[in-house]
Amino acid sequence: MNSQSKSPWTFTTQRLVLAAIFGALIFALYVVGLAFFPVPNISNAATILATPVSLAGIIGGPIAGLIVGAVFSIVAQLSFGGAFLPISLMGGRPFIGLVAWAVYAGLSRVMNDKVAAFIAGALGSITNTVATVGIAMIAGDPAVAGATVPVLAVALAPQVLFEAVISAIACSLIVFAVRQAMGGRKLPL
Question: Directed axis angle between helix 50-60 and helix 113-139, to 10°?
């Protein structure tokens, strides 16, 4: 059975290696100080870490995306552990890769895969913010205490758009390069 006929839920050695590479990339960005950068918002930070999670989901499939999202959760806890409840930081991030995979898998069947990767990258990034802030609100996290959804939406919109555009462009370019390197093979690998 070749990798094209395997279920995306089959966890292969290749997918494990992809998850390890993207997880290591997240830790490397954290260690060198590029994981989060200052912006005036609730957390005082924006991030590009949703991009490797989205790429793991698109290229490696849903399980790789979930694993790399869990790595992102750990890095977020290391970075902001005292400022937010653990469930706020860790609860939603594994779903970034799952959303990116589902969007890419669905759209790449009906449109150009570069466009599908662009949309999947954007929606993976948006999942990060919506899930994190949504869980924080549901859990009663003091960091968002008293804030309403409209207030948070207005406050976070510039950051969400910036992160989504960066992730969308990066995912589209990297998926194109990976497909070229793999001789045009369909993703996930």
Answer: 130
Find the length of the chain. 189
CA separation for the pair 38, 14 (Å, rounded): 35
Give the three-state DSSP class for 47: strand
CB atoms within 10 A of CB 79: 18
Q: Which two tokens stand for residue 157?
A: 């919109």
- Respond yes or no on whether the N-terminal peptide bond of residue 142 is cis (omega within 30° of 0): no
- Sign of the Cα pseudo-torsion (145, 146, 149, 152, in order): negative
pLDDT digits (tens, 9 = 90+) for 50-89: 999 999 999 999 999 999 999 999 999 998 877 888 898 8
At 21, which amino acid appears?
Answer: I
- Strand-pairing partners, residue 133, are none
- Structural domains present in the chain: 13-181 (1.10.1760.20)
